[in-house]
Specification:
The protein has a seven-stranded mixed β-sheet with strand order 7-4-1-8-13-10-14, sandwiched between helices. A two-stranded antiparallel sheet has the order 2-3. It has a two-stranded antiparallel sheet with strand order 5-6. Helices cover 25% and strands 29% of the residues. It has a single domain, classed as Spore Coat Polysaccharide Biosynthesis Protein SpsA, Chain A. The longest helix is centred in the first third of the chain and has 14 residues. It is an alpha/beta fold and 280 residues long.
Amino acid sequence: MKVAILAGGLGTRLAEETETKPKPMVEVGGQPILWHIMMHYAYHRFKDFIIALGYKGEVIKKYMVDYCSLNSNLTISLQTGTVQMHGGYRPDWTVELVDTGLYTNTGGRIKRLAPYIGNETFMLTWGDGVSDIDLEDLLAFHRRHGKLATMTAVHPPARFGHLELDGEQIVEFSEKPQTLDGWINGAFFVLEPAVFDYIDADTTQWEKEPLERLAKDGQLMAYKHTSFWQCMDTLRDKRLLESLWQTGNAPWKVWEKPHESITNGSQRLHRHAVSAAATR
């Protein structure tokens, strides 16, 4: 199953970081947030990626082209120009990099990926948000209901500390937890190819007419995710994610946790070897 990642926006609210690179290349823990997202999908065995490029897409292209070389030992023949890689971390991913235009809106970017996705169910997310969502369970939910689109619904992170009061006494204090009321678009989608018909043009914003029409037609279902989710819209968000990573409390780092899967009817535990990719 292919995973489409939108990575072409201007990232204006992270201008301090995005003057020289697109937002998906802003680093958390020494790696682009795009890498964190792809590691999450790969952990759940979704390794066929299509990345929609736009603003400074060449930075993402160069990163992908150089990735294996930068994470391996090299033998270089200066006479012939040949390069041999030894060891290191070389993930078994396929990555298609598609230029979808500098100013194309989110819906337009999705529609431009249609020739690369074909007539198959596919996953979609943005290149700036991380979560500990169980992607296999998300897909199973989508297949059970049989509609065209599944959106992951999440509780938004609170902007301020949460207080539980007994009269004037504070009996519980939580520093910026996720709220318990209300749901928002968490941007981890599973979609059928018929959703392309809901997108009119490059100027179409996915979050407006297409999703509104899908909901009106009864074709949009919500997968409720109540655990960790965090987007990286601002420098403050980046600092929060960096702090979680540096303190060893990054809930989205599922690829270093035991993972139950079923193979030939028997359960097994497996762990991806990623230590070589943790630094570069």
